[in-house]
Design brief:
The structure holds 2 protein chains of 2 kinds. Chain A is an alpha/beta fold. Chain A is built from 20 helices and 18 strands. Chain B has one domain: 3-Layer(aba) Sandwich (Pyruvate-ferredoxin Oxidoreductase, domain 3), CATH 3.40.920.10. Chain B has a 5-stranded mixed β-sheet with strand order 2-3-1-4-5. The chains are: A alpha/beta, B alpha/beta.
């Protein structure tokens, strides 16, 4: 029996519900704003979900599920897609036998990221099909469709969201009676299909390009793209994602072509739309992805000014783009920058580093906020895990006196994400002055809202599992000195130990352990349970 | 624009940790249950760490963008005036600013219930029964907080 439900859902919640109703057997990912809540919701709704140590491992697990003819969801933020890229570019060649949907959440404007790269440009380079929902309803519908299309074409599908899709709540209608159960998994041996040695990968690349050409034909007639007739024929706007809704508010009379399936881009359908209007512009968040492809195809559309590449779009910017107003500026409001929580124990982790004049190669997490005034306790931050490698690089070339001041600071979740290979480099190619790595361990993945990680001893749903001991790992990998301090209570001892080790040529790893202030109450509850 | 297509825009602003996002979730759910098209937009992540934070709630017959255009904020819930009053530049002519000075905040059952009291002040501007507000509030909090929230809501609704 068909029964329509209506709910007000965030884009992330809608994706989770869509995956559940599509019969997704396993959801896997690494936390990252604005994607984190997808797997938490999927698990809450009864789906099987897990946090992997990083996005590449998550994508590997998801690909294994799809090789076994079942259905997987993998979630990450845009920069996490870079970590997993090695898998995706070749999985596009091999193809899959089941279904695999990767949700990649972009952060235009960088509310909580280190860059504002556009997933569509990367997916285009890798030959991966991309769907772009414009609200929570499409997030739900497109997720379900992505599972179907991924299985139909035998290729991982990318669902690209942005902050205002992931974290906006809009109304979603759905019919639970149409939900599917996870498919039965099965392995059929087919070595040339899945072992991408050159002899297998060459024909696989040809297959990929053929698939993309077939998908393009299908997309030219698909209902994932929506055309709204304009009043009159003055202005046509080609838009994707939330920008399509900004465009509707900014120009209610304009014709709109909302692109939902953006790689391969349905150029022919867009050309037919563009012909109806005297003036055509493209409104998109991030790179001029559609603009470039449409202009290359010879469509008579306006260049998009470089100005609209930066930050999020909104109604005011949409109006300015239509008006060609390049002087437009959003009002800049006085705002308090984010800071370490009042009473955060890891403020104390940084004080001794500052006092000892350390050059701090930093990493990604709440503790990056220690770079801000008044602490100013971090000198570099680029990507997950880079603190260790960058610190080693500086140690290799800096004059002795400066080299001895270099320390790498990394959080517990980041350590498992991509710090382990940095430790291997440190042991394999030790600088002549040695090196010191400091793990600020708050027993959680705090910045994204307290997710579990391989060091907490609990899974995504907080149930108990194996726990990896950072100190034992460091020791086993060949770090000579391994120590642990409480950054608040043992501050003086920590400073003394660090100062002593900086003078030696030895390798040292120090864990500064004190749970996140916000997580402490939850941790206590879980211990009791 | 006819009244049928009128969109009402509410911005809630404050600092991370004050319950800005929770209040906007409650408000948008209430409006959704009353049959409006509702969209709510906000930013999570680093901004939660004590930094400035705001959330937009828009409702009407049909809402397009989830973000309120400049100069179209009809109600500003300024939860931490020092840091949230800057949003006043985005208010429409004749818009309403609501702040903790609109009620006796010394009588709040706890500082944590400030967000609910702010909704109490806002409730005076809508033709929605007090019971409906209280019923929706209950859905978002554990039972042990229901009484404190009812006190906070009524405190805000009563005003000064």
């Amino acid at each position: 029996m068909s029964e329509k439900n209506r709910k007000l859902l965030s884009g992330n919640e809608a994706v989770a519900l869509g995956a559940l109703h599509a019969g997704c057997a396993l959801g896997v990912g690494y936390p990252g704003t604005p994607s984190t809540e997808i797997l938490e919701t999927f698990s809450f709704l009864g789906g099987n979900a897990e946090w992997a140590p990083n996005e590449k491992v998550a994508a590997e697990v998801a690909l294994g599920v799809a090789f076994a003819e079942s259905s997987s969801l993998v979630t990450m933020k845009h920069v996490g897609f870079n970590v997993a890229q090695d898998l995706f570019f070749t999985a596009a060649y091999s193809g899959i036998q089941g279904a695999m949907v990767a949700v990649v959440a972009d952060d235009p404007g960088m509310a909580s990221s280190q860059n504002e790269q556009d997933t569509r440009s990367l997916a285009f380079a890798g030959g991966l099909p991309v769907l772009e929902p414009s609200d929570s309803q499409e997030a739900y519908d497109f997720t379900r469709l992505a599972f179907e299309l991924s299985r139909k074409w035998g290729i991982p599908f990318i669902l690209r969201t942005t902050t205002r899709i992931a974290h906006s709540n809009t109304v979603v209608e759905f019919d639970e009676s149409t939900a599917s159960k996870p498919p039965r998994a099965n392995f059929n041996r087919d070595i040339p299909a899945r072992v991408m040695v050159p002899g297998h990968a060459r024909p696989a690349h040809l297959r990929l390009r053929k698939k993309l050409a077939d998908m393009l034909e299908w997309n030219e007639n698909s209902n994932l793209n929506t055309e709204i007739d304009g009043v009159g024929n003055e202005l046509g706007i080609i838009a994707s994602g939330v920008a399509a809704h900004h465009a509707r508010d900014a120009a209610p009379d304009a014709g709109i072509f909302r692109v939902g399936f953006s790689n391969p881009l349905p150029v022919r359908s867009i050309a037919a739309f563009a012909k109806k209007y005297k003036r055509c512009i493209v409104m998109e968040e991030g790179d001029p992805y559609m603009t470039t492809l449409l202009k290359a195809a010879g469509l008579n559309i306006e260049d998009r000014a470089e100005k609209w590449r930066f930050g999020e779009m909104n109604v005011d910017k949409a109006r300015a783009q239509i008006a060609g107003n390049l002087e437009f500026q959003m009002p800049v409001l006085k705002a308090r920058p984010p800071q370490l929580c009042k009473g955060c124990p890891h403020v104390f982790s940084f004080a001794p580093l500052v006092e000892l004049g350390c050059i701090v190669a930093g990493d990604i997490g709440c503790y990056t906020l220690a770079a801000m005034k008044p602490i100013s306790g971090m000198d570099t931050q680029i990507c997950m895990g880079a603190s260790i490698g960058m610190g080693l690089g500086m140690r290799h070339v800096l004059p002795d006196e400066q080299a001895r001041k270099v320390v790498s600071v990394i959080g517990d979740s980041t350590f498992f994400h991509s710090g382990l290979t940095g430790i291997a480099e440190m042991v394999y190619n030790p600088p002549s002055t040695g090196h010191v790595v400091i793990v600020v361990d708050n027993s959680t993945t705090a910045m994204t809202g307290q997710q579990e990680n391989p060091g907490t001893g609990r899974k995504l749903d907080h149930s108990p599992t194996n726990k990896i001991d950072i100190l034992a790992v460091a020791k086993a990998m060949g770090i000579a000195n391994v120590a642990e301090f409480n950054p608040v209570r043992d501050s003086a001892k920590f400073k003394e130990y660090l100062s002593e080790k900086l003078k030696t040529n030895e390798l040292t790893l120090i864990a500064l352990r004190q749970p996140c202030l916000l997580a402490a109450a939850n941790l206590a509850k879980m211990k009791k349970a | 624009m006819d009244s049928d297509s009128k969109i009402t825009n509410i911005r809630l602003a404050g600092l991370g940790g004050m319950g800005v996002l929770k209040a906007s979730l409650i408000l948008s759910e209430l409006l959704f249950e009353l049959g409006y098209d509702v969209k709510k937009a906000e930013v999570h992540g680093m901004s939660q760490r004590g930094g400035s934070i705001s959330s937009d709630v828009r409702f009407g017959k049909k809402v397009e963008s989830p973000m309120i255009p400049e100069g179209e904020v009809d109600f500003l819930l300024s939860m931490q005036p020092e840091w949230s009053d800057p949003h006043m530049v985005s208010m429409a002519n004749g818009a309403v600013r609501i702040s903790p000075e609109d009620f006796d905040s010394s009588k709040l059952p706890s500082q944590k219930s400030l967000n609910v009291a702010m909704l109490g002040v806002l409730s005076n501007y809508f033709d929605i029964s007090e019971q409906k507000w209280l019923d929706t509030l209950k859905k978002f909090f554990p039972e042990k907080l229901h009484e404190a929230n009812e006190i906070a809501f009524k405190l805000g609704r009563k005003g000064k």
